[in-house]
C-alpha cells in the first residue's frame, strides 16, 4: 500500500495542475446562486487533509524544479528557435485576430441580450434590452469587418466602462475586454479589413474616394500616433489577462468558494480526480492566480499561454452548459501572446539576457496603421 502512494500522489498532482480549468471557468455562468461557504472554512478543510497539503506543496515544488531545470538545461533549443520564428511570422495577422477575438463574442452577446459577461443581462443591469442588443451587435460587426476599427474599439471600451459602473462584480468577470479594446486601438484594422481597403482608395491618386473621404485628413494623424505605440500590445494584453486571471482565481474562487464548490458538485468533478471538493477549488484558484501573475510579469509567456489554452479547452468539454462565447475573447487574446511572446518590460527578456537564450520573444510591432 505504501509503495503505491508515491505514484498515485504524483499522478493526482499532475491532474490537479492541468484539469482545474474545468472549475476555473467563470463559475457564475453555471452556478448563479450564492454559496454560504467562506474562505476560512475552505482553507480549514484543506489544512486538515494531509493528502491535500502534500499535493499542493508537491505541485508548487514540482513547478519550481521544472523551471530551474529548464533554465539550467535549456533543451530543444533549435526546435524552439524555429517555433518562435514561425510564430513571429504571423504578426501581420494580429489585428485580424484581435478583431475576431473581441468582435465575435460581442455579436453573440448582442443577439443573446447580455453586456460582455453572460451574467450581465439587461434585466440585471437595469438598462433597456434593445440598447444592449444594438450596442453589442453594432460594435461587434464593425470590429469583425474592420470598419472604423479604432473608433469602434473606443466605443466598445466606453460601453464596458459604463457597464462596470452599473455592476462592477459582473463586468469584472469579463475584464479581458479592456486589454482587447486597447490592443485593437493600438493595432488598427490591419489586413484584411474594410479600413485597409478604404485607406488604399484614399491614398491612390485620381480616385473619386480620395476627393470625398470625410475622415482621412482628420483621423490619419491619430491612427499614426496610436500605431507608433503598437509595440506595447503584448504588454497590454498580458497584463490585462493577468489581472483577469488573478481576479477570477482569488476573488471568484478563494474568497467566494461557494459557487466554485457548486460547480464541483454539479459536474461531479471529484469522480474525475478523487480529491475533496475543497482541494479542487483551492487548486483551481491557486493555478489561475499563479498563471495570472506569470502572464502579468511576462514570465514564460508562451508556456503560460499553453496552460491557459489547456484550461479553456477542458472547460469547454468538461462543462457542457458553459457559454462557449464567453471564452472566445480569452482564446483569441491568449493566441495573440503565443505569437508575440512577452514583449517589452517582461521577465522573459531579462531571463534571455541573464541566461544567454535567444531574444526571440521580443515583438517589435509594426502593424500597418489605418485612419480609423
UniProtKB/TrEMBL annotation:
Residues annotated as transmembrane: 51-73, 93-116, 131-148, 160-187, 231-250, 289-312, 324-345
InterPro entries with a match to the protein in the record: DoxX, DoxX-like_oxidoreductase
Membrane topology recorded in Swiss-Prot or TrEMBL: Multi-pass membrane protein
UniProt KW keywords: Cell membrane, Membrane, Transmembrane, Transmembrane helix
Domain of life of the source: Archaea
GO terms for cellular component: plasma membrane
Keyword Cell membrane: yes
UniProt keyword Nuclease, yes or no: no
Compartments in which it is found: Cell membrane
Official protein name in the record: DoxX family protein
Source species: Halolamina litorea
